[in-house]
Every structure is written in structure tokens, then in C-alpha cells.
Amino acid sequence: MDRTTDGWLSGFAGVLVFSGSLPATRVAIGDIDPLFLTLVRAGIAGAIGLALLATWRQPRPERRDLRSLIIVALGVVVGFPLLSALALEHMSAGRSIVFTGLLPLATAGFAVLRGGERPDRRFWLFALLGSLLIAGFALMRGTTSSLAGDLLMLAAILVCGLGYAEGAVLSRRLGGWQVICWALALALPVMLGILCLLPWPAWSTVGLPAWIGLGYVSLFSMLIGFMFWYRGLALGGTAAVGQLQLLQPLFGLGLAASLLHESIGPGMIVTTLAVVACVAGARHFSTRRIPSDS
User: Fold this and answer.
1) Which 8-state DSSP code applies to residue 146?
2) Which of 3, 21, 272, 286 satisfies CB 3.0 to 4.6 Å to 221 for a cystine?
């Protein structure tokens, strides 16, 4: 298997894992405060990540890597989880599809700014078209929100795209799973310190669905998904592989159909095929220049 194909397969696995993140967060914040949820999920994942680094005796990052690790931690460990959880207090999970459709564009933009990638102009055409298809499909389904929710979710998408692009560059030196583990370990003392200052919820009032949501976002969304995702971005190109995120909201709807027995209309099938075509087009016209690490 060549490097690029390996990257796309890893990225696809990451997208599958991330597809359940927003629904799981929506369920969890029903019984758990968004800030407390952000801290706990990062703390759990950080403790596991630190154990993995110690078990496999990974060398410490160099000083030049600390700035990038801080950006990753602020973007995907703290920023996106907190901002999206706060946004979901003002919007439905369906509304968030509008914004996740913009995540591939945000990731590609930061890949140009931070990673030195230069996709073909036709790549941007397919990336924009795919985002518009996802946003249009979500709006046609009918969703409600508020200005506060929209602004919070937009901010979440921007910091997440930055965290993705920065982590992908760093993964070329440290490795995909090492990057997210080091970012989590770096944030762990701060997360635990703030947790000690906050009032804890009455755990007896937290229902089973919220516990399951907390477990999913802690283990899968915060750790396992990133192990595949950063590897995919590093091997296949951040801007190109990032377009797989266009499939994420559709995977979420498919998951709801299979587990919750929701119907799949012809609109979803047509949109899925069109988005797959956009992803294929973006992959075909993606070219990248990876600068040296010196």
C-alpha cells in the first residue's frame, strides 16, 4: 500500500470515529455542564495518553515543537470541545451539520497558511461545492438555532481547522498518535487544576445516556479518532484528506438510521453521491508541497 492511500484510509477511519462526536456531546450536556464536560473528557483522554507515551517510552518533543503542541491543545483539546458544547446548548445537532460542512475548507485554508501546501485551483472548486452541498442539505432539513449558537459553532470550526492543520505538520516528525497524546499530556495539569476549582455535578443525577456520551467523547473523539486522523493528514496531505470531513455529517445521519431506525430519503442518497464525487475531485486535483523540517 502506497503512502497516499494509507493516508486516505487512516483519514477515513478518523472521520468515522468523529461522526459520533457531536451527537454524543449533545447527549452528555443534557446532564453535565459543558465546561465540566470539556475538562473531564480532556482529563480522561490525557491520563490515557500519558500512560501510552510512558508505556512505549516515547522521547520528549523538542523545544521547537512546544509551540505547535500548544496550538493543537488549544484547538482540539480545549477549543472545539468547549465551543461546540456551548453552541449545542443553543442549537440542534442537525444545525451543527451546517458548520461541520465548513470544516474541510477551514482545514485546507490553515494547511496553506501553516503547512505550506498548495492545492490546485480546481481543488478549491470541489471543496467549496462539497461544503455548499452539505450546508444546503442541512438547511433543507429544517434546523433552529440562535445567533450565539451560530457564532460559537463558527469559532469552534475555525479553531478545530487550525488544530488539525498544525497537528498534521507536527505528525510528520512525531507521529500521529504521539501528537495527540503529547497535546493531551500538555493540557492535563491545567485541566485537572481547573477541575479542582469547579463544583462537581451530583453524579446520581447523571443518566446512563450522558455517561455513554462522556465515555465516547473521552475515549474515541478525544483520543482514538485523532490517532487515525493525524496519521491520515500527515501521509495523504492535510488539504486533500481533510475533504473526507464532508462525509462526516452524512455518516452521522446514516448511523442514526441504522441505530434509531430513522428513514433515509432520496435527498440524502443524492447528496451523499454528490459529496463523494466532490471528495474524489478534490483528491484528484490536490497537490502538495511539504517543506523541510529544518
Assistant:
1) -
2) 21
Exposure letters 27-41 (e unless 16+ CB within 10 A, then b): bbbebbbbebbbbbb
- How far apart CA 222 and CA 215 sit, in angstroms, is 10
pTM for the full predicted model: 0.87
Determine the longest span between alpha carbons in the chain, in angstroms. 55
Digit-by-digit pLDDT tens for the chain (294 residues) are 788 899 999 999 999 999 888 888 888 999 999 999 999 999 999 999 999 999 999 999 999 999 999 999 999 999 999 999 999 888 776 667 667 777 888 899 899 888 888 888 888 898 889 888 877 776 676 555 678 888 898 899 999 999 999 999 999 999 999 999 999 999 999 999 999 999 999 999 999 999 999 999 999 999 999 999 999 999 998 988 988 888 887 786 676 566 545 555 677 667 767 877 888 888 778 754 444 443
User: 124-161 as b/e, with b when 16 or more CB fall inside 10 Å?
Assistant: bebbebbbebbbebbeebeeebeeebbebbebbbbbbb
